[in-house]
Amino acid sequence: MCFYRGLHCPICARYLTEFQKRVDDFAERGVGTIAVSSDGEERARAMAEKIGATSLRFGYDLSLSKAREWGLYISTSRGKTSIGIEEPALFSEPGLFMVTPEQSLYYGSTQTMPFVRPHFSELVGALDFAIEHNYPARGEYTGDV
Fold first, then answer.
1. For the residues 72-101, what does the mean pLDDT come to?
2. Which of 60, 86, 92, 108 is 20 to 30 Å from 43 by CA-CA measure?
3. Secondary structure (DSSP) of 84-143
4. Which whole number is the average pLDDT over 119-144?
5. Which of 6, 14, 29, 31 shows the shortest CA–CA distance to 91?
6. What is the pLDDT of residue 140?
């Protein structure tokens, strides 16, 4: 699951373009893909068209309370972006998560800024290693420290 900021974000468009290119790589490893934002349906469709999405699924209308449950950071609007699109009053910052078939978190990355995101090619390589070595999820300890 790739949470993105919204149509207003040019960095998101570039990032999702790369994600679209890797959808088949993830599928070959049994991993489904989706890009999700708090944008409404119209803006989500515009982003899908903008990046030429053919197989990447898009989710929309992510509530900000649900975004917070995922650990995403929330930002306020700064007006129009460099590409001339108005930011929503509130929106979530990026996050990238892999969830197991048992619905537990396997990988998670959240950001406070739109810059410097995990590379999908590296994630595919990490998946190959994890699959080959039956590598467990980390960060699983929840006891006292």
1. 96
2. 108
3. S-BPPSEEEPPEEEEE-TTS-EEEEEE-SSSSS---HHHHHHHHHHHHHHTPPPSS---S
4. 95
5. 6
6. 87
| Domain contains 6 | yes
For residue 140, tell me if it sits in a domain: no
Q: Identity (one letter) of the amino acid at 47?
A: M
Sign of CA dihedral 51, 55, 60, 63: negative
Residue 16: other Cβ atoms inside 10 A:
23
CB atoms within 10 A of CB 88: 19
User: Residue 21 belongs to what domain range?
Assistant: 2-133
Is beta strand 2-3 parallel, antiparallel or unpaired with respect to 105-110?
Answer: unpaired
Q: What are phi and psi of 5, to 5 degrees?
A: -70, -35
Return the percent helix, strand and coil in the chain, to nearest 5.
35, 20, 45
Take residue 119 and report the two structure tokens written for it: 């590379």
pTM over 0.85: yes
Give me the amino acid identity at 50. Answer: K
